[in-house]
Amino acid sequence: MKPEHAVNRAFQFLCKTRMHTTPNTVYLGLNQTFSSESLPEQFLLAGWQLKANSSWKERREFYDTFEWHAFEKGVAVIKKKKTLFLADLNTGQEKASLPFPGTPSSFFSGTLHPGTLQAELSSLSDIRAFIKLCSIDAIISSYSVLNDNEKTIATLTSESLYFADSKKPEPFAHLLSLSPLKGYGDEMELIKKSLLCNDENVCSIVDFRELFELIITAAGRNCLDYSSKLKLELDADAPVHESARRLLQFTFSVMRANEEGIKKNIDSEFLHDYRVAIRRTRSILKQLKGVFDAEESAYYLNLFRDLGKRTNELRDRDVYLLRQETYFRYLPPFLQPSLQLFFKNMAVSRKKLHKQFCHYLASSRYQSFLEEWDAFATRQSVPDPELSPKACHSTMSVATESIKKAWKKVIQHGRQVSSEATDTELHALRIDCKKLRYLLEFFSSIFPHKSIAPVIRQLKELQENLGDFVDFAVQLHFLHDRLTAIPSGKEENLLAASMGALMATLFQKQEEARSTFHKTFSAFDDDKTSQLFHDLLTSSLT
């Protein structure tokens, strides 16, 4: 949709909006033909008048994370007059502010001065960057509304909104805002009614959330237009090949949506979501056997495996850099400074790996792969029944069969884990649990929420235990390799001491995770969980 069409639709929506509960400041959407140079005065009661105060231009910049964490929590992040503000999306009232002289394209909450605003943003997300959504210029004129006693009862502000640095310097919205002085609420109601009834320029009352959404829509975005979470509504009776292709199209869209953020190096979650999309894609191809041609599936499985491998080392560097503060806390103060060299090397290595992967993303080879995969994921033809014998089975039948098989595999392998719970055993079981979790997520929409939600919760606790164990094992292996490669020297010897101490702490935590495995697995492998899976897998029969 073209931006101008989006603006028109947004205004049509505003004009049809019902009146909302009046906040302290009321925003009124105006027709595009409105001119702020000639404010209507016929809405005033007899004897009332407008008194011009001042006019000015103001730059406003709007921020949020790529996943809209602030918007989801009812918060707007706005920078104006060299200050960063948090505003309540429902009322527009300021919640917190701090000096913010720059105009970065993105920033992290951790880089801000400690205080209420920094804490609020960190609670929304401490690893995702807050990205500039758009910049607008507001041409503002302020008026005092005087009653028949020539007392100021409210402030009327006229605003024309323009996109900053636009090649077409035309306003995309006109607004009036009314802010009553204390004790003049009744007069405010009279002004509103008069405006809405007597002036053809006024569309409707607009609350702050609608104003925010209007600005974002006019900028060519849609609030909540990205989420890595699967939110597809699948048809339980549809042929499973149709549902599987919808899942593949979704994971592909997630990959594509994150490419730009990876290239711009905005934050580490772009690569993380990209990798999860790759793993989900491989899981669909690998676990839904008989849905696609086996040779085609094997071909694409190899391509996606190779693509994932290209990101492994880069993701490793991200993980270690994200854990920098945690690693420092694991060490006594006198060993912390020498560990800086390790993170410095990680940052240098990451920069090189990032550059290499960005070159690959821009390559003709990658573009050809994208085109080829898109053609496969969007193919409309019914698969050959000889090559894809389950393609036309119902989505529900394949889902229940696949989940049941994956669940039994987790139980079987979990029961076979020895009392020592070796690294190899727990790593293999973690992979089994991931496969089951992906299947539950893929097909969650075709099962009753009351049946599938408890199953996922039970599995999540086991996954967290296995995830902690395997993560510590991977870190220990990586640090050991780095330690053995450190050359001799005074600075290097201190680094080796720090890494040795860090490894000792990580090993202790790994052993704690190992010691709790059997208890955690027993809690999963019990009658309650078995009944939950039974209820889930038979819910389609009721």
What is shown here, in short?
The chain has 17 helices and ten strands. The chain is an alpha+beta fold and 542 residues long.
Task: Describe the fold and architecture.
Strands 1, 2, 3, 4, 5, 6, 7, 8, 9 and 10 form a 10-stranded antiparallel sheet that branches. The longest helix is centred in the C-terminal third of the chain and has 36 residues. It is globular and about 90 Å long. The protein has 3 domains: 216 residues, Hypothetical Protein Pfu-838710-001, CATH 2.40.320; 167 residues, CHAD domain, CATH 1.40.20; 147 residues, CHAD domain (Alpha solenoid). Helix 8 runs antiparallel to helix 10 and helix 14 packs antiparallel against helix 15. The chain has 542 residues and is an alpha+beta fold. 30% of the residues are buried. It is built from 17 helices and 10 strands. The protein starts with a helix and ends with a helix.
DSSP E strands, number: 10
Shape: globular
Per CATH, the architecture of the largest domain is Beta Barrel
What's the SSE pattern?
HEEHEEEEHEEEHEHHHHHHHHHHHHH
- Beta strand %: 15-25%
**Main CATH class of the largest domain:** Mainly Beta
CATH domain fold name of the largest domain: Hypothetical Protein Pfu-838710-001
**Low-confidence spans: pLDDT under 50, at least 5 residues?**
1-23
